[in-house]
Amino acid sequence: MTLDQRIGANLPVRSGSDSHRLPIGSFEPELGGRLDEVSLAYETWGELDASGTNAVLVTHALTGDPRAAGGADESHKRGGWWEPVIGPGRPIDTDEYFVICSNVLGGCAGSTGPESPDPETGRPYGMRFPTVTIRDIVRAQKRLLDGLGIKKLAMVAGGSIGGQQALEWPIEFPDFVEKSLVVAATDALGPQGLGMSEIGRRAITADPNFQNGDYYGTGKTPDSGLSIARMAGMMTYQSAECQSERFGRNSATSGRSRMENPGGTFDVECYLQYQGNDLVGRFDANSYLYLLRAMDLYDAARGYSSLEEAFERIRAEMLFVGISSDWLFPARDVEATAEVAAKAGAKAKYVEMESINGHDAFLKDWDEFNAAISPFLERG
Amino acid sequence: MTLDQRIGANLPVRSGSDSHRLPIGSFEPELGGRLDEVSLAYETWGELDASGTNAVLVTHALTGDPRAAGGADESHKRGGWWEPVIGPGRPIDTDEYFVICSNVLGGCAGSTGPESPDPETGRPYGMRFPTVTIRDIVRAQKRLLDGLGIKKLAMVAGGSIGGQQALEWPIEFPDFVEKSLVVAATDALGPQGLGMSEIGRRAITADPNFQNGDYYGTGKTPDSGLSIARMAGMMTYQSAECQSERFGRNSATSGRSRMENPGGTFDVECYLQYQGNDLVGRFDANSYLYLLRAMDLYDAARGYSSLEEAFERIRAEMLFVGISSDWLFPARDVEATAEVAAKAGAKAKYVEMESINGHDAFLKDWDEFNAAISPFLERG
Questions:
Q1: Predicted pLDDT at A2
Q2: Which of A120, A261, B12, B370 sits in a 20 to 30 Å window from B207, CA-based?
Q3: The pLDDT of residue B276
């Protein structure tokens, strides 16, 4: 069976993406429920070698998609989200590696998620979609990799909720992963992050257009709720310092705000409105709720007697990258996670990226990020 | 005219408060508009001396009310919000001072605000209420104090938006104020605070029950919007450290959450839900919007060529109190404000309260707070 035969039909997916899609069969999420037919959307760069061991899995962030690499086009006007990191001669070198990025289970960029039709009823799952966890997401990815003939991951790499996946991979499949790059993520989100998620969740579910998740085809989508949730998210992705530098108390450029505020609109308000609205056009509110919950619920120790016991399973070489100004997954917490991993016997190192750009720095500060990860990526 | 004659009728006010209410005439807010009949609700403790100069004005926080002191009763089950600070023999000693606390202009605890009837139409103002600023709030308070026969403030004291008022007082009325105690406030809120306010504002105005502010008498109030706004506020009042200590990733006690979340409800989620819902019962959503905006818009430099020029007006002795873990008005920003005041010639000192309790510590950590302010309160 050639690779092309193994790849599913190119079904239409959100935002005109040209991802491939591979059926991975039925799936039973760890917290219950069952999905009868699951497909994952993915994109790849480079060539899988004959041994099937030169693959790198790149895992996307909350609202990300499989377009990790590649230049700008109609559907991705700013190019792949890790474009400066992945490519020929880049830190994740596609001359050497077969790079794959899949939309997560529960997502809305081509993989089976809440907006997919339930094969039993033909109607979109909506909130009947089962709760999925980071472990479920990783297990589904493993099936995809198996389907693509990948025998071993040379590396798994991702940031934020993608970092949680990169951490879960060598715990769940210790013999399958050689290296794991965990960026801006810890073994479990703290209460501040949980609290901000809750604000977003309440905003979406309180939107009258939400209709308990059954808004598909009604012509009404919970746009304002999703927009507010995104605004809450954006606050956790930025640092006080970068907001001070970028926005301060400046007034919004005239005419740019969607909603003028009494006494004049501040730049930061206009920015949040823009970001909120921008997500509405490209993301499904139900998917947002499910993936947010996966992030909230992730606890690497779940199912083990302790975090140490979970980490004792790791055979992969690990690099944890903390971002000095990260509010969502504070650098000191990333470092603490790395320390537990090292204590549990994992070959785990920690490196801190100095940046004022907060959680999002791994999607922005390319020079600093590439400098932080490059030593780890050199083949031994 | 005796004091009692000057005091207006005891009109019914929110939550069964037994505040007095004093008409202060018509009022023109600095950003435009006009209010024809304004009253302020207030409570007092202690006696005004013959010279009218032993008065202390205490200014409340965003969702506070005039009940600053006094023990618990039906309407205030936990007693006055600064009860351990104000009373006979307490730091603000009512054996010595005549203490007054008034509900702010725009508030909903008895003072003229958006839910008051517009005398022209007889209908509640709603969003037709003019934008009010901290300076307006202070100017209205001055009229109240004049009406009560107060000749000079021995001190003005408050935290958060109350601290903004305590800072504005000696700028706006330099000859009227002997001491100013500014707690957990700066000359202007930073972009993170502005951003969190914007999330709350959008949540309220997106609530279909908001009806552009005209929800009075409709039987529908924007409860879920106000609740989400309060949740966003609570996030800014607490520190990562206190949330970690208090909530961590603990599960909510069974049955306590109003809204169960997939995979189980975290304690911090339950807490935020509770706080959000609690405010709904005791606060008007329009007032919340107006007071939030007053906090956002406050800029002590407004109307002056610089902050220094504004601060050069100050004759009062100032104490700025920062809270080490404050996220909304970070201690370093409070200190920086104090430094500018001192540089501008004000007798300004700064003291920092060590607390993990975040912005709210001035309403919680009584021993630390009283220790921080007591030296400043001793009569020279």
A1: 33
A2: B12
A3: 96
Count of beta carbons in the 10 Å neighbourhood of residue A376: 18
| Whole-number Å distance between alpha carbons of A219 and A217 | 6
- Number of helices (H), then strands (E), belonging to chain A: the values are 11, 10
Cα(B306)–Cα(A353) distance, integer angstroms: 37
Q: Which residue has the tokens 């050689």?
A: A178
pLDDT computed for residue A326 by the predictor: 97
Q: What positions of B carry a catalytic annotation?
A: 160, 326, 359
Q: Write out A221-263 in H/E/C secondary structure.
A: CCHHHHHHHHHHHHHHHCCHHHHHHHCCCCECCCCCCCCCCCC
**Domains, chain A, with CATH or none:** 3-190+298-377 (3.40.50.1820), 192-290 (1.10.1740.110)
8-state DSSP, B361: G
The answer to whether the CB atoms of A272 and B227 lie below 8 A apart is: no
Task: Indicate left, alpha or beta for A35 from its phi (over 0: left) and psi (-120 to 50: alpha).
Answer: beta
Beta-sheet pairing, A92-93 with A86-87: parallel
Instruction: Give chain A positions within 8 Å (CB) of B274.
Output: none
Are the beta carbons of B202 and A224 separated by less than 8 Å? yes
Look up residue B106 and give its two tokens: 């725009």
pTM value?
Answer: 0.94
pLDDT tens-digit series, residues B5-41: 333 333 333 443 568 999 999 999 999 999 999 999 9
* pLDDT per residue as tens digits for the range B87-132: 999 999 999 999 999 999 999 999 999 999 999 999 999 999 999 9
| Separation in Å, CA A21 to CA A44, A48, A61, A82, A112 | 11, 17, 19, 21, 10
Nearest to A195 among B227, B268, B290 (CB): B268
Please give the Cα distance from A352 to A348 (Å, whole number).
14
Q: How far apart are CA A130 and CA B270, in angstroms?
A: 22
Question: What digits encode the pLDDT tens for the residues A335-380?
Answer: 999 999 999 999 999 999 999 999 999 999 999 999 999 999 986 5
Closest CA in chain A for residue B232: A199
Residues in A touching B268 (Cβ below 8 Å): 191, 194-195, 198
The residue whose two tokens read 């979109």 is A124
Q: Give the distance, in angstroms, between the CA of residue A120 and the centroid of all CA atoms in the same chain.
A: 29
Q: Quick one: three-class SS letters along A112-124?
A: CCCCCECCCCCCE
